[in-house]
# Entry
Amino acid sequence: MSYLVSLTLEGRPAVVVGAGQVARRKVEGLLQAEAAVTVVAPGICAEIQALADAGRVALRREPYGKECLAGVSLVIAATNHAAVNAQVARDARELGILVNVVDRPALCTFTLPATLRRGDLTVAVATGGRCPALASAVREDLEAQFGDEYGEVVALLGRLREQLMAAGWEGFRVRQALISLYRAGLPELIAAGDQAGVRKLVAAFTGLQP
# Structure
């Protein structure tokens, strides 16, 4: 049984070993977390090359070696060579670095859930590495339930939380007010563009004006 966490990777060095389409998806996920990404591979796919040209990732056009992990926070092995991926896992464990090997949960110290992002809201679906395809399918089902308006919902509730805490509200009272506001239909009002309805609802539960 895994223990899900949300890593703060902003500005932290991360390495992806491999530069094909699977590696590209892993790189994009790390970039969303604002990690400082280096890709290690002798050959680079066009999409990763474009990211490098834009200054978003660093490239090491060379075969993997243990020295590639110096100072790294985490590494993802995504090559087509099982022996290379296994070596990355061994090296990472020796160095105390978090490692994910694509499609080999037994070699991982962390696995990656299927994620749905709406602004600062992240919904994660995980199967402990047993069936990533199922996790992806469930994530796709959730896309219809959590629309783009949820990014605005998180932003608004975050601002209200700060204001209520600054006004001296106790944590439990703040939590209950925000949950009640959410369940009273805030996402639906935002999705409909009903700003007057949003203001009325916020005032009713918090006494504030957004």
Summary: Residues 149-206 form one domain. Strands lie at 13-17, 36-40, 58-60, 74-77, 98-101, 114-118, 121-125. The longest strand covers residues 13-17. Helices lie at 21-32, 46-53, 82-95, 132-145, 149-166, 171-183, 186-191, 195-206.
